[in-house]
Amino acid sequence: MELYAGPIQDFISDTLQNQIATKLETAFFDYYGYHPADAEIRSWRSSLRAVKDVFEYSGFNDHGILLEYQLPLSSKRLDCMICGRDDDGRDNSVIIELKQWESSQPSGVSEHVITWIGGANRDVLHPSVQVGQYKLYLEDNHSAFFENDPIKLNACSYIHNYVPTEQDALFSTQYAEYIKNYPVFCECNFKDLSSYLKQKLKNGNGMPVLERVQESKYGPSRRLLDEIVKVVKENRRYILLDDQFLAFDKVMNLVKDGESTKRKQVVIVNGGPGTGKSVIAVNLLAELSRMGKNAQYATGSKAFTETLRKSLGPIGRSQAKYFNSYMNAPADSIDVLIADESHRIRVNSNNRFTKKEKRSNRPQIDELISVAKVPVFFIDDRQNVRPGEIGSSAYIRENAQRLGCDVHEYQLDIQFRCQGSDKFVQWVNNTFGIQKTASAIWDPKVNEFDFQIVGSPQELYRKIKEKNDEEPNSARMVAGFCWKWSGPNPDGTLVKDVVIGDFAMTWEGKETGRLAPDVPPASLWPFDPRAVSQIGSIYTIQGFEFDYVGVIIGKDIIYNFETNKWEGHPENSADSMVRRGGDKFTDLVKNSYRVLLSRALKGCYVYFVDKETEKFVKSRIESIKQ
Q1: Is residue 72 a contact partner of residue 216, using CB atoms and an 8 Å limit?
Q2: Euclidean distance between CA atoms 451 and 426, whole angstroms
Q3: In this structure, are strands 105-106 and 112-117 parallel, antiparallel, or unpaired?
Q4: Is it the case that residue 377 has pLDDT exceeding 90?
Q5: What is the rounded average pLDDT of the residues 454-466?
Q6: What is the pTM of this model?
Q7: How many helices (H) and strands (E) does the chain have?
Q8: In what order do the strands lie in the sheet with 546-553?
Q9: What does the pLDDT look like over 128-152, one tens digit per residue?
Q10: Any idea what the Cα angle at residue 125 is, between residues 123 and 129, rounded to 5°?
Q11: Which residue in 180, 201, 460, 481 has its CB near the most CB atoms, within 10 A?
Q12: Cβ–Cβ under 8 Å, residues 284 and 336
C-alpha cells in the first residue's frame, strides 16, 4: 500500500501546483479513516517540494515514484521510493528518507543521535541507520527485491534544511560505515544527491519497475519461532525498525555501561499486539549471549517457554525460564533478564506446587528486578487475561522506582501482524469497547488483511485446515474458554470437549495424563504441525503468531442490543480463574478475545456462537452493514 504512486512528471506537476500534500491527505483519510496530523501535512509540503527540486535538476522525466509506501507486514511507511533503470539497463530503485532536521547532538547510545523533533530533543536513529534498516527489511520481506532477477535496491537520506558544522555529530566517525552504504545529503549537497540518483537511475523507464514493486508478493512471513532458530543458532539478527532498534540499542548500551552506573537500570518496552516485542527480546538474547553475557529469557507462559526451549535445543534451553524461577535467586546473579509477556507478572511466585516451607510473600516484581543487573520488561497493558496477572507499565515503573532504580520506557507503534494494518487492532479495540479509536468501521475493500465471519465452525476448520495444508504450521484454530478442558482418555486420546451442534473438536492436549504418541502436548501446540486438528486457548496462543487464525467466539461475552453494551456471562465460561474475577470478568474476557483476534499476520476468520453478537459485529463492517 502507498498513498501516492505514478510517473515522476505527475509528481512534479502536483507539487508545483501545491496539490501533493492535499492528495496525500485525501489518500490517508480514505485508507485510515481519519486525518493525518497537521505536522505530517506540513512535513509533506516542505520535504516533497525540496526533493522535487532535485528531480527537476536531475532531468528526471521517465521515472516512477512511490510516496508513503508501507513496508510489507508492517505499519511503517517509507517517505519516498524512486524507480528506474541503471547504466546496464537493470531495474533499480532508491529509497529516500526525508527529514527537516536543522541540527543534531551526540547521543550516549551507538547508532543514535539527538535532534529536535515534536517540540523536544529526542534520541533517534541516525538517518543512515534508519534507512539502511528499511532497505534490509524490504530485501528480506518483498519478493520484488529477492526473487526472479530482483530489483536492485539503494537507500539514502535527504535532510534538506541541515547545514553541517565542524565536528558535526551527524557525521561522526562512528557512523562512517553506515554513511558509506546509505549516504546522507544535506542542504549543501543538492548536486551530490542529484549525481547519486542519476548514477543509480540514469536510464529512466521507471514505471515498469514501479509496477513490479506494486504487483510482486510479500516474501515469506517471519514467524517468531523460525527467527529464534536463525537468530540464536545461525548468528543472524532479525531486521529491527525505528522504535524497535532504539529499544534494542538502549538495552545493549545499558549493559555495556553497567559497570559505571551506581543505580540499577530498568527498561520497559510497551507495545500492542504485533509490534515486535518478542522479536526484540529474542534478538537481545542472541546478541547478549554472543557477547558472553548471562542473559535469560523469562515468561509467564508454559507454551511459550517450552516452545522456546525446544527451538533453542539442549544447549540453549537453560536460558528460557519462567517468572517464578527466581524466588531464591541471589541479587544481580544474571546480567540481563529479558521478561517477555510481562503483563503476566503475578502478585508472588507461589503456585499450587510450591511447598509450604518454600512459600514467600515477596512480590514477584521484586524478584525479577533483583535478580538481574539490567531487567528488561516487554509488555502490552491490555493483555491481562486472568485475575492474578497484575503486570502493567505503571506497576513495573512504580516498583522499580520504589527499589531505587532508574527507569527507561519505550513505546512500540509499528504493526507487523494483520498485514501491517494497525487499523484492524484499532477496530477490534473499538468494536469490543476496549478503547475508543478512529477505526469504528472495518472496510474490507480498502484493507489487505483478510477478515471474514463464517457461518459454521465446520467452515472455519475447513478454511484453517486448507491454509495449513498449503504451508505447514501456518494456521491454527482457537476459541474462547467456554467449554471444559478434559484430561486425556485412558488410551491417551483426547476428549472432544468443544461441541457446537454437530461440530465436535478437542482442545490442545492437556498434560495431566499420558498422551497418545500422535497427540502433541499443549505446551508444544504452537510448534507441532499436528496441532491444526486441536483448538487452542488463550493460554497456549498468547505470545505467538500465525499466518491465519480461526477464532470461535463463545457466549462468555454477548452484545445486548437493548442496553447497547457488552455483557459478560460467567455462567458460560469454563475458566474457573476468570470466573472468580468478579467485576473484572467482562474486561478480562474482552482482553482474551483481543489477543485471539490479533494473532494473525495475513487473515483472521471468526465464527460467533451467539447470533445477536455476530449481528452487532457485522454492523461494524462496511460491506455487510445490517
Answers
A1: no
A2: 14
A3: antiparallel
A4: yes
A5: 96
A6: 0.61
A7: 19, 24
A8: 450-453, 600-608, 546-553, 475-479, 534-536, 503-507, 498-500
A9: 999 998 898 788 778 888 877 899 9
A10: 165
A11: 201
A12: yes
Q: Report in angstroms the alpha-carbon separations of 24 from 15, 79, 96, 557.
A: 11, 11, 17, 40
For residue 440 the three cell numbers come to 469504528
- Can you tell me the distance from the alpha carbon of 264 to that of 567, in angstroms, rounded to the nearest whole number? 44
409 neighbors 268 (Cβ within 8 angstroms): yes
Strand 406-412 versus strand 184-186 pairing type: unpaired
- SS3 of the chain: helix, strand, coil, percent, to 5: 40, 25, 35
What pLDDT score was predicted for residue 222?
43
Q: How confident is the model at residue 51 (pLDDT cuts 50, 70, 90)?
A: very high
Interval 175-204: pLDDT, tens: 999 999 999 999 999 999 999 999 999 999
Contacts of residue 373, Cβ cutoff 8 Å, sequence gap at least 6:
255, 258, 264, 332, 334, 335, 336
Residue 487: all three cell numbers together? 484430561
Query: What is the phi/psi pair of residue 515, to 5°?
Result: -100, 145
CA atoms within 13 A on the CB side of 28: 19
Between the alpha carbon of residue 186 and those of residues 58, 94, 132, 471, the distances in Å are: 16, 17, 17, 47
Question: CA-CA distance, 480 to 589, in Å (whole number)?
Answer: 8
Neighbours of 490 (CB within 10 A): 8
- Sequence letter at residue 408: H
The band of 30, judged by pLDDT with boundaries at 50, 70 and 90, is: confident
Joined grid coordinates for residue 200? 543509480
Sequence letter at residue 223: R
Q: How far is 175 from 177, CA to CA, in rounded Å?
A: 6
Q: At 66, is the pLDDT very low, low, confident or very high (cuts 50, 70, 90)?
A: very high
Q: Which of 280, 278, 274, 273 is nearest to 244 (CA)?
A: 280
